[in-house]
Amino acid sequence: MTELTTFDKALLNLLQGHLPVCSRPFAQLAVQLGTDEQTVLTRLKWLKQEGYLRRIGTFFNSARLGYEGTLVALQVDGAHISSVAEAVNRYPGATHNYEREGEYNLWFTLLTADPVQERRILREVRALPGVHGMMNLKSRKKYKINVQFQLR
Amino acid sequence: MKHSGSEVSELDKNVIRALQGEFPLVEEPYKELASRAGVSEEVFLARVREMTQQKMIRKMGAVLRHREVGFSSNVLCAWEVEPERLDEVARSMAASASVSHCYDRNVAPGWPYNLYTMIHAHSRAECEQIAEQLGRENHVAHRVMLYSKKEWKKTSMQYFQEP
After folding, report:
1. Nearest by CB: A58 against B1, B19, B111
2. What residues are paired with B99 via a beta bridge?
3. 3.20.19.10, 3.40.50.720, 3.30.70.3460, 3.40.190.10: which CATH number matches B73-147?
4. Which of A30, A79, B111, B124 has the fewest CB atoms lying closer than 10 Å?
């Protein structure tokens, strides 16, 4: 993997926290970084292409948009793990789905537009072959949601 | 029951649908997004600013692929905290630079863990050390380390897609 330059790190540190909301956001970032708009755009395309950047964009507060979120943990027998994981993946509201170590071995986050839809999906998942247990782990309070990595 | 998303206007839904895709890496990205939403750039920018103030937008910015930028190891660590100390412990753990996410969650039969932290580090050993230290500092003896074995899906939610 190619090393990130000092400029790349400064650009990523800045952009992680704040994408300007104005007509020429990359020109504004360029001013802050002491360079020009084209350099910022070219470098961002490269960082994206090389896989350093997962996504540039908007992150919404799902609750404010009227969506319900939860974390679901499943006990799945080894032989069925792929089929269950794939079935879970087919729900658009299942945004993160990980196989994990431990007795509960498949964990996914689920966003739905209403509780009825959530109950229906959980019922369907619980009934999948190989699923022996399920926990619906609701959060009341999110103390931190901040995937930022300070690059040095 | 109130219909979900009832406070989200049709204009906002169009703005959200335009914003939730890839952000265009062009000189005037909002102009392009505004045309997708069927409004002028001016209206679009104004709505984005208002939606940020209203906390419908949590953040505009970049998310890195943490493995590629050197944080090769992470773990979802679930803690068993006495309910009366949950808020205090959650705040304290959330303040750690190694913790990216910190949520409380309900318990379940046979599952006493009520606080979840996502810990990022450079190795599994370092994840263990950080968890050990968080537990010690906050006087929480019981935890479970839920290391991932396989990422089956990691996507951003596409809101307001259903008919």
Report:
1. B19
2. B119
3. 3.30.70.3460
4. A79
